[in-house]
């Protein structure tokens, strides 16, 4: 199969169109906020707790996106809910399935206030025994990491908690990952055996520049009475927003990943420019203080392999020195090219040498297999439709991928 065989479905059948003035969504509200929203619409105080618990179950356990399916809620209450609220999913502008099974969705969200509809990308990566959903936290990004495609798209706005969570709900819909809707009412659904078993906040944007919405969305995603993802299976990746790192551990309690990519400040200033504000010394100190850090709960350091830039054995040595004493795992990421970049991926032999060196120092250092490169779904390749490649650029890029990687089999 060639990269040209990736399947693209533009707007799958039955998907909603983006409403221009949507009603407020119940998705992404805390229980307290949902209760207040119901009270404002006349639900009696003594009923609120029960109604919130019913809605929570329908929305997050069963994945219902239509109030009419909530059969244990009286018809007049369902009418009131329909009139004032929504639980609809975002519009799917495009769904692509890579020849390695990776899926990428381009999603459109309605305008907020005076703004315009916005588009973001979400990626699902199936692996042996697990499936990881890579979720976006912002539309575009204000940081300009020089190896990252998203970094070339200006920041449009932060996503809301509803929009962050909707990416997970929509992926579960499309993957058939909500349980049979005939299960007994109120039944708990085990978190094991689901297609989306892990989530990573590693899509478009810097999650710690949108702390409150990310926190709210992740607390709902890990709520034991709802989506029930284990906090150990949720990873938040930051480029190094030092002042928010401690709060992340304390208030959200998920696993932490750092987009490291360089072990010297002069080089990291170029690859990850936020380093000029929060240099390596401060970043590593913040990592050491991360709540709950232990050998069983290590920090993942992401390291993109860029040919002749950061891939020497000197760099590997520097990496080991830098992380000394930090319970760490190092993910080596072969650079995923995108149109217009000047970087190249390190040679495979060099990546292996680098990995062996780190391994022999006692660090787990898996080389992350590139996934979904043919649909630009791999790490650092996301960029939404608002600024996407024109068709001619895409064809030229696909031709380059075939020439460089020999992906025909
Ligand atoms: S790597 Fe992350 S923080 Fe850096 S530009 Fe890309 S999306 Fe933004």
From TrEMBL:
Recorded GO MF terms: 4 iron, 4 sulfur cluster binding; metal ion binding; rRNA (adenine(2503)-C2-)-methyltransferase activity; rRNA binding; tRNA (adenine(37)-C2)-methyltransferase activity; tRNA binding
UniProt-annotated location(s): Cytoplasm
One example of a Gene Ontology biological process annotation: rRNA base methylation
Coiled coil: none
Active site location: 121 (proton acceptor), 379 (s-methylcysteine intermediate)
Entry note: cofactor: Binds 1 [4Fe-4S] cluster. The cluster is coordinated with 3 cysteines and an exchangeable S-adenosyl-L-methionine.
EC nos: 2.1.1.192
Assigned keywords, A-Z: 4Fe-4S, Cytoplasm, Disulfide bond, Iron, Iron-sulfur, Metal-binding, Methyltransferase, rRNA processing, S-adenosyl-L-methionine, Transferase, tRNA processing
Enzyme class: transferase
Major localization listed first in the record, in broad terms: cytoplasm
Cofactor dependence: [4Fe-4S] cluster
InterPro entries associated with the record: Aldolase_TIM, Methyltransferase_A, RlmN_N, RNA_MTrfase_RlmN, rRNA_lsu_MTrfase_RlmN/Cfr, rSAM, rSAM_sf
List of residues binding S-adenosyl-L-methionine: 205-206, 237, 259-261, 336
Catalyzed reactions: adenosine(37) in tRNA + 2 reduced [2Fe-2S]-[ferredoxin] + 2 S-adenosyl-L-methionine = 2-methyladenosine(37) in tRNA + 5'-deoxyadenosine + L-methionine + 2 oxidized [2Fe-2S]-[ferredoxin] + S-adenosyl-L-homocysteine; adenosine(2503) in 23S rRNA + 2 reduced [2Fe-2S]-[ferredoxin] + 2 S-adenosyl-L-methionine = 2-methyladenosine(2503) in 23S rRNA + 5'-deoxyadenosine + L-methionine + 2 oxidized [2Fe-2S]-[ferredoxin] + S-adenosyl-L-homocysteine
Gene Ontology CC annotations of this record: cytoplasm
Stretch list, region Disordered: 1-21
Domain Radical SAM core: start-end pairs: 127-376
Pfam families xrefs: Radical_SAM, RlmN_N
Residues bound to [4Fe-4S] cluster: 141, 145, 148
Similarity section: Belongs to the radical SAM superfamily. RlmN family.
Note: Reaction proceeds by a ping-pong mechanism involving intermediate methylation of a conserved cysteine residue.
Function: Specifically methylates position 2 of adenine 2503 in 23S rRNA and position 2 of adenine 37 in tRNAs. m2A2503 modification seems to play a crucial role in the proofreading step occurring at the peptidyl transferase center and thus would serve to optimize ribosomal fidelity.
Name by which UniProt lists this protein: Dual-specificity RNA methyltransferase RlmN
Native organism: Rhizobium mongolense subsp. loessense
Lineage of origin: Bacteria, Pseudomonadati, Pseudomonadota, Alphaproteobacteria, Hyphomicrobiales
Protein's gene: rlmN
């Amino acid at each position: 199969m060639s990269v040209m065989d990736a399947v693209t479905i533009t707007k799958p059948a039955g998907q909603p169109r983006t409403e221009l003035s949507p009603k407020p969504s119940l998705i992404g509200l805390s229980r307290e906020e949902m209760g207040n929203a119901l009270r404002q619409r006349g639900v009696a105080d003594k009923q609120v707790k029960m109604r919130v618990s019913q809605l929570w179950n329908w929305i997050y356990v069963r994945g219902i996106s239509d109030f009419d399916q909530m059969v244990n809620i009286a018809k007049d209450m369902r009418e009131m809910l329909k009139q004032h609220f929504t639980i609809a999913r975002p519009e799917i502008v495009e769904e692509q399935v890579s020849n390695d099974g990776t899926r990428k969705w381009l999603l459109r969200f309605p305008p907020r206030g005076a703004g315009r509809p916005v588009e973001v990308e979400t990626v699902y990566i199936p692996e042996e025994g697990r499936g990881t959903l890579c979720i976006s936290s912002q539309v575009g990004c204000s940081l300009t990491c020089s190896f990252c495609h998203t970094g070339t798209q200006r920041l449009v706005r932060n996503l809301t908690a509803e929009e962050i969570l909707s990416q997970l709900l929509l992926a579960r819909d499309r993957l058939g990952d909500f349980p049979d809707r005939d299960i007994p009412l109120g039944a708990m659904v085990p978190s094991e055996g689901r297609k989306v078993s892990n989530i990573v906040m590693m899509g478009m944007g810097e999650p710690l520049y949108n702390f409150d919405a990310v926190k709210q969305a992740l607390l709902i995603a890990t709520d034991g009475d709802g989506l029930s993802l284990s906090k150990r299976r949720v990873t938040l990746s930051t480029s190094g927003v030092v002042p928010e790192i401690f709060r992340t551990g304390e208030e959200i309690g998920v696993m932490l990943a750092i987009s490291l990519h360089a072990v010297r400040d002069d080089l990291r200033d170029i690859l990850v420019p936020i380093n000029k504000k929060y240099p390596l010394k401060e970043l590593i100190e913040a990592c050491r203080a991360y709540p709950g850090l232990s050998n069983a709960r290590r920090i993942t350091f992401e390291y993109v392999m860029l040919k002749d830039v950061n891939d020497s054995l000197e760099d590997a040595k520097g990496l080991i020195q830098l992380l000394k004493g930090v319970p760490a795992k190092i993910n080596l990421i072969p650079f995923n090219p995108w149109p217009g970049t000047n970087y190249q991926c390190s040679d495979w032999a060099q990546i292996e040498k680098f990995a062996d060196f780190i391994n022999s120092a006692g660090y787990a250092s898996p080389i992350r297999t590139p996934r979904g490169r043919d649909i630009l779904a791999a790490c650092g390749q996301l960029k939404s439709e608002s600024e996407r490649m024109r068709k001619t650029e895409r064809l030229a890029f696909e031709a380059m991928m075939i020439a460089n990687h020999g992906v025909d089999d």
